[in-house]
Design brief:
The structure holds two protein chains of two kinds. Chain A has one domain: MetI-like (MetI-like fold, Orthogonal Bundle). Helix content of chain A is 77%, strand content 0%. The relative contact order of chain A is 0.13. Chain B has a single domain, classed as MetI-like (MetI-like fold). A two-stranded antiparallel sheet of chain B has the order 1-2. Chain B is globular and about 70 Å long. The chains are: A mainly alpha, B mainly alpha.
Chain lengths: 271, 280
């Protein structure tokens, strides 16, 4: 390391990192721990080990409805968002055109608008076009919110593709469509899987917009929000742990597919 | 100039344009236009009147909420950036490449744990008879009232923003040219001087982007001020929720939302100017 500092300062800085991580992970770990704790009002010392919160949510039809809605929404919006993200990433990769900056702004701006504002705007818009309160509104809204993430993941992958490969296919007589089908898509496939998982995870967690536009089709986070408005209820910890495991699985799958890029590029040069 | 229409190119270009115009630009523009609509008998009717604007902008509670939200977001940005900086500094300069990569991986995890659940956890931990107060009670302190105070709100914002700000700061600090830093040391600058005159200016863009994201997130969030801060006084996002959910006053909520957006645009614009300003 170039910067010399005395041991004491290094020690203090490293302990500081530890403290910051402790702060960040405290709520995650406590929710995990208290989902198995028998006391209703969690405190130290802990009560006994129990699975009753999990049993409660397992036997609650509202939770199952929410799980179903969340899955439908997450799957549909991740497919749509990844499709749109792919088109956008490919356009950005291959073409330059007038107003391209405006085009990219359109693609990347949604995450900078506060969700509560998007929620109100979507609510008003959907009730104008008459889909308010239907599950489609949630799917459409989540697609808007997720597409930028899908675009970013796929764009990063395209960056690693040699532009000559596509050109070579054209020279060998492939149409642009064929080159897309047999060259580009196979190359970005891992990133497409990665984008699908990532956007699914984003949709699975989003609550503000879903809360405004979902009507009776509550997703899991909306259900959590409504339980929160009621009372201190450790069910939330159990639901939260379930959601955590689901999203983490998706994220890890996304990460694994994102990491096979080096392998992918080798395959492509061999073909 | 007339060009042959390139169907292939347009096939890839248009999905985004159509989708975003319909479901991103459309809703936002419509939201601006409903600020001029009227609500009669709980139904929104098209009109072009300034009533909602006058109604909201002449009310004391709106400006109280406005000032309070701005204050909370600024406070959160300053506190988060200051807490994040030593950690980002240490992660950039004091640990190995591998440790840094693992640290960033762990900082990404919170994004995929429900923010609502984390807020609920803090609620349980910080309650007057909660875990935190029983722990410090063991050493004879407390109990402290943290929930329903500004401290509670800020803890919520920190949970939300800290991982992102540390990631952004670390990425920019890790890219600072090590030779510059070494040169500063060789020329006899102490660590404080090196930090302030070499490291911070070189990493300025990343530090400011981190702060801007923190500001945007805290400014728009309603969960922390509601559940940890007790919602009194309300922030602008809570005002939007209350106005929307009670009495169908969407036009007035839209006024609040438009005010929020304009404020954010001004802040973001000023920050970007500051970030890319040429050093004199």
């Amino acid at each position: 390391m170039n910067i010399q500092g005395n041991r004491l300062i290094n020690f203090i800085l490293k302990s500081y990192i530890g403290l910051v991580f402790l702060f960040i992970f405290t709520p995650i770990i406590t929710s995990l721990v208290f989902s198995f704790n028998s006391d209703r009002f969690a405190s130290i010392p802990l009560g006994s080990f129990t699975l009753k919160w999990y049993e409660t949510i397992y036997n609650d039809p509202d939770v199952w409805d929410a799980v179903r809605t969340s899955i439908i929404v997450a799957v549909s919006s991740s497919v749509l968002a990844t499709g749109i993200g792919f088109c956008t990433a490919y356009t950005d990769f291959r073409y330059t055109f007038k107003f391209k900056n405006a085009y990219l702004a359109l693609a990347l701006l949604p995450p900078t608008i506060p969700l509560i504002i998007m929620a109100l705007a979507m609510l008003a818009w959907f009730s104008k076009i008459g889909t308010s309160g239907s599950i489609f509104s949630v799917i459409i809204a989540h697609t808007v919110l997720c597409a930028p993430f899908a675009m970013a993941v796929i764009r990063l992958r395209l960056q690693q593709m040699n532009r000559d490969i596509e050109a070579a296919a054209w020279n060998l007589g492939a149409t642009e469509w064929a080159a897309m089908r047999y060259v580009v898509i196979p190359f970005v496939k891992p990133a497409i899987v990665s984008a699908l998982c990532l956007t699914m995870a984003v949709s699975f967690d989003e609550f503000a917009v879903a809360w405004f536009v979902s009507g009776l089709n509550k997703t899991i986070p909306v259900l959590i929000l409504e339980i929160l408005q009621g009372n201190v209820d450790p069910q939330i910890n159990a639901i939260g742990t379930f959601v955590f495991i689901t999203t983490m699985t998706l994220v890890i799958i996304a990460q694994l597919f994102f990491m096979i890029r080096s392998q992918g590029s080798e395959n492509n040069t061999n073909e | 100039m007339i060009k042959k229409v390139d169907t292939y190119a347009l096939t890839w270009r248009f999905p985004l344009i159509i989708w975003q115009l319909l479901f991103f630009v459309g809703p936002l523009v419509f939201m601006i236009s409903i600020t001029f609509f009227l609500v009669k008998n709980y139904r929104m009717t098209e009109a072009f009147e300034m009533k909602n604007w006058i109604k909201m902008l002449t009310r004391g509670y709106f400006w109280d909420a406005y000032a309070y939200t701005l204050w909370l977001a600024t406070l959160s940005t300053v506190i988060t950036s200051c807490i994040a900086f030593p950690a980002s500094y240490a992660l950039s300069f004091k640990v190995s490449e591998t440790t840094r990569r693992w640290a960033i991986f762990f900082l990404i995890i919170p994004f995929f744990t429900s923010y609502l659940v984390r807020t609920f956890s803090w609620y349980v931990v910080l309650a007057e008879s909660g875990v935190f107060n029983s722990l410090i009670g063991e050493i004879g302190l407390g109990p402290y009232k943290i929930l329903n105070t500004q401290v509670g709100t800020i803890i919520g914002y920190l949970t939300f923003c800290l991982p992102l700000v540390i990631i952004l700061q670390t990425l920019s600090l890790a890219n600072v040219d090590r030779n510059l830093i070494e040169a500063a040391y060789n020329l006899g600058a102490g660590w404080a001087r090196t930090l302030l005159t070499v490291i911070v200016p070189s990493a300025k863009v990343g530090l400011i982007i981190g702060a801007v994201f923190c500001f945007i997130l805290s400014y728009g969030d309603f969960v922390s001020p509601y559940y940890l801060g007790g919602s009194k006084p309300p922030t602008l996002s809570i005002l939007i929720i209350d106005t929307t959910k009670s009495g169908q006053q969407w036009p007035r909520a839209a006024v609040v939302a438009v005010m929020m957006m304009s404020t954010l645009m001004i802040v973001a614009f000023a920050a970007i100017l500051a970030a890319y300003r040429k050093p004199r």
